[in-house]
User: Fold this.
Amino acid sequence: QVQLVESGGGLVQAGDSLTLSCTGSGRTFSAYTTGWFRQAPGRGREFVAAIMWNGINTYYVDSSVKGRFTISRDNAENTVYLQMNRLTPDDTALYYCATDRRAYSSYFDISAAGYDYWGQGTQVTVSS
Assistant:
């Protein structure tokens, strides 16, 4: 059984930092691109960032997070991280990690449909 478990969320003030973790089990975690998505109240689930199985190639949704968020992975620990700096209230959301449907994928999929296993989410709340 494949499981993804997120942790690291919390309540912080604007300008603070948080690091989210996503630990996987149940299949060869290191073979799959892993992405982070977020869902704010009243909004759909949106792609934030992804890191390829090789730990080298990364992709960020746009300038709203690029430069502030950094995705990384430790395949020996089956864990992907999302370092989030200079947080703003607009970053408030439930953050999910998910793994790509395809092993050893050579391109990024930014749609939720491209990911088959999901964690339960970790809440990030940023106060102004």
